[in-house]
Amino acid sequence: MSRFHKVGGAAALALVLANPAYADLTADQLWDATKAGIESAVAQNEGLSVTIGTENRTGDTVTLADIAIIVDSAPTYVAVNIPSITLTSRPDGTVLMDQSDSYDFEIRIDDPESTSATPDQITLKLVGFQENDETIFSGTLEDLQIAYSVPRSGIRMPAGGLSISGADAADVPQISGELTYSGLAGTLGYKTEGALLLLDSDMTIASAALSLKVVDPQEGTFTLNGAFAEMNDKLDVALPLNGLTSMQAAYDNGLRMEQDSTVGASSFDFTMRGPYDMPMDGNMTIGSLTSTSNISRDLVAMDFAMGDVALSSSMTGPLGTIGRFEMGFDMAFAETADLQPYAITTKITDLVASDMIWAMVDPGGQLPRDPASMDVTLNGEWQVQGDVFDEAALASGAATIIPRSFGFAPLNISALGASITGGGTFELGPDMDADMPITNGSAEFTLIGIDALLQKLNAMGLIPPDAAMGATFALQGFTTQVDPQTRTTKIEVNNGVINLNGMVIPGFQ
């Protein structure tokens, strides 16, 4: 039995599964180089161990059995057990890899709600599978290419796969499910440049299916079934071969990643059967999904979008549609003396409620039913001090993020015939606990149709008279009326003194 174990450094399973130290493309040399890469990875990464039960070399074939990979990094423990892997040299100078049809996962997480000195653990047991898979290694030692195809693969959670130590088994929800991929194929490229491993991945999945069932002793039964059209994923990664003692160190040594993913039309059906006599079924369809990410020392940026979303339920029928929904952020977390920008964006385009919903809320048709939209970006600058990926440093105050400015650019919201648009930026002083932490800045906003909307909502009884009166007084006190439909407001801060529409606010001067 071969065993590699080390406690010290950060866990990095990727280094074991994809180490660049591949030699010439024969099965023996490929495994020898991979073994050396495993030893190097284990030597650098805390809580990572790899065990090979048996290793057999016969002719052009290397057979490995009972492979166990463990990442033990509190509060999480992950174990992967692969029954066998076979590497075979081929006459054309390539190497064919064959894996066992299934392998086991075990994930343990300390229960965050546990109050005992030894926390209870939540354990998930999963089974991965692939059928008729083919993986071929080609190229050179310095520029390795891997092509793979798997007609059917996925991961399943069998009944009883969830357990919680210290809990009565009768009180633990029973969860079972499966995520299946059809037509999985792609390429992986590995090469080294200096002290970096460069990974280039291009993957396509023809279709995918999801099934999930949760039986909760108190809440009842929930089921979810989903189907996905074609999925595509492109990934480029630069991974440091050394200096992985922390995320901060990884960034400093060149860690970066770029990823683009797309998913075609998707559909989800769910059912809920609770302890009460109110069964509910529903459906959600999504025309497209896209996600991008860009991670490096200078920037962490992620964006997610979905288009042509439609919702319905058995209780109300169609609920509504969303033309497009987007969320994203751009920010930096690496320690530096310079101020760094951050931005968090949310966009909703063409949000439309169904006629059934409108009939319940506004049966008289008094409110405008134009599609609603929102485009809001919170942005500014902050300063990062210390390694914010170090939980101990964060807890002690040795690492922190200090906001230095914030603002909205843009802020556009429209719904029910009314809208608010505008934006601005404010600077923050060094003392965030001060009565007035904002030192300088300004923002301007334009409100259209707000008065008419308040009057309609009040007349329909959708807001209490006192609330309507309070909102009206607030509009009159904090905005300037330009015409019957339009109001504006401007907030300025100069050395901590607040000026609203040309008037100094008492108490802040």
Q: Can you give the mean pLDDT?
A: 88
Radius of gyration: 29 Å
Estimated share of beta-strand residues: over 45%
- Name the poorly predicted regions: 3-23
Question: Approximately how much helix is present in the residues?
Answer: 10-25%
General shape: globular
Description:
By secondary structure, the protein is mainly beta. The chain has a domain at 1-175. The protein contains 7 helices and 28 strands. The protein has helices at 13-17, 27-44, 247-252, 355-361, 391-396, 450-459, 465-478, and strands spanning 2-6, 48-58, 61-73, 76-89, 95-99, 102-110, 121-131, 134-139, 143-157, 162-164, 174-193, 196-216, 220-228, 231-240, 256-263, 266-273, 280-295, 300-313, 317-331, 340-353, 372-385, 400-415, 418-428, 438-448, 480-483, 486-494, 497-500, 503-504. It has a 28-stranded antiparallel beta sheet that branches. It is globular. Residues 3-23 have low confidence and may be disordered.
Write the layout of secondary structure elements.
Elements: E1 2-6, H1 13-17, H2 27-44, E2 48-58, E3 61-73, E4 76-89, E5 95-99, E6 102-110, E7 121-131, E8 134-139, E9 143-157, E10 162-164, E11 174-193, E12 196-216, E13 220-228, E14 231-240, H3 247-252, E15 256-263, E16 266-273, E17 280-295, E18 300-313, E19 317-331, E20 340-353, H4 355-361, E21 372-385, H5 391-396, E22 400-415, E23 418-428, E24 438-448, H6 450-459, H7 465-478, E25 480-483, E26 486-494, E27 497-500, E28 503-504
Helix pairs in contact: 6-7
